[in-house]
Amino acid sequence: MKNVDADTIVMFNNTIQDGSIVQAFPTDVINGEMCLPLAQGHNALRTVEGRTCYLPFEYELCSQQRGDELLGRWDYPGAVWFTYGSGKPFVPSKPFPAEFLYRRIQLAYQRGASSVLLACAPDYTGKFRQGDIEQLVELGRMLKNPTSIPRPSLTTSCQVKASSVWDVNHAADKAVDGDPATRWAAAKGATNGWLEVDLGRPATVSRAMIDEGWDRVRQYVLQAKIGDTWQPVATGTTLGRFRELWFDPVTAQVYRLSLTDATDVPTFWEFQLFSPKEQKAIQCQ
Q: Are 195 and 184 in contact (CB under 8 A)?
């Protein structure tokens, strides 16, 4: 490290990590790549080689997705560092929804990240596609004007139960914790199931956002409990990544997402419900 300017930051790329341990030293920054800091927050003061060091966390977010491949233990499915365009013998990538990127950027800072990088690039022709441009413009608008962001999900931290769970690390509450890195999964061998969330009091809902892993669902129905009866508010076949369901406003305290048919064990990163814009969001305790 001789002849390094005092204003220079030296960083080792230790591949995807959550910052729980210092994997290489000396370094001035812990690079998490696509991995968010720990849920309890990043501890920047570390004892290394007998001395206390300040090691902030840098998070790198990918703007593109391609399929459901997991590139690492902690990252989100389908994320790719590069933009793959059509016209070549590989699957084209597509931009993540701008709201998805915005939520993860905010979550990274809430958990103590000191900086966030957004990995985006032109495709093999050297051009940014129209959808990529629209994504970046929309993300910029959200970052400049947070008041324009859709209201938080009504389901975050609410009481939730499921037909079955894979294990304690994939419990029902993982689908409503607001953390896109955790997920609920039904029991081994299941090809159907349900998630039921109690908002704590009646609330009017007109939109659902469902982030399903590996596109397994083939038949679903979103229901609201009116009195003692489950009333369907939205039905369909497949769900997949970042699926939005819009429907006429319905008021209820308990909502259920029933998965009546799936090709494999149903699993969801997030199940979120939203009120119409004119209604104040409630908060579960």
A: yes
Q: If you average pLDDT over residues 147-162, what whole number do you get?
A: 77
In this structure, is residue 284 part of a structural domain?
no
Amino acid at 148: S
Q: For residue 203, tell me if it sits in a domain.
A: yes
Task: State the average pLDDT for the chain.
Answer: 82
Which parts of 34-174 are beta strand (E)? 45-48, 51-54, 57-62, 64-65, 79-80, 94-95, 113-119, 159-162
* Cα-Cα-Cα-Cα dihedral sign, residues 75, 78, 84, 90: positive
* Other Cβ atoms closer than 10 A to 3: 5
pLDDT at 72 over 60: no
Mean pLDDT within 62-72: 69
In a domain, 281, yes or no: no
| Residue 20: domain span | 1-149
So what's the pLDDT on residue 194? 93
Taking the whole predicted model, whether its pTM rises above 0.85 is answered as no
Q: Is the dihedral of CA 201, 205, 211, 217 positive or negative?
A: positive
Report the DSSP beta bridge partners of residue 113.
57
Same structural domain, 259 and 139: no
CA-CA distances (angstroms) from residue 33 to 39, 53, 284? 16, 21, 32
Measure Cα distances from 185 to 163, 166, 171, 173, 273 in Å.
10, 5, 7, 10, 19
118-132 pLDDT per residue, tens: 998 888 888 899 999
Buried b (16+ CB within 10 A) or exposed e, 53-75: eebebbbbbbbbbbeeeebeeeb
Task: Give the strand pairing for 30-33 and 57-62.
Answer: parallel
Instruction: State how many domains the chain has.
Output: 2
Please enumerate in sequence order all residues whose Cβ is within 8 A of that of 147, keeping only pairs 6 or more positions apart, or say none: none
**Distances in Å between the alpha carbon of 221 and those of 1, 98, 193?**
60, 27, 11
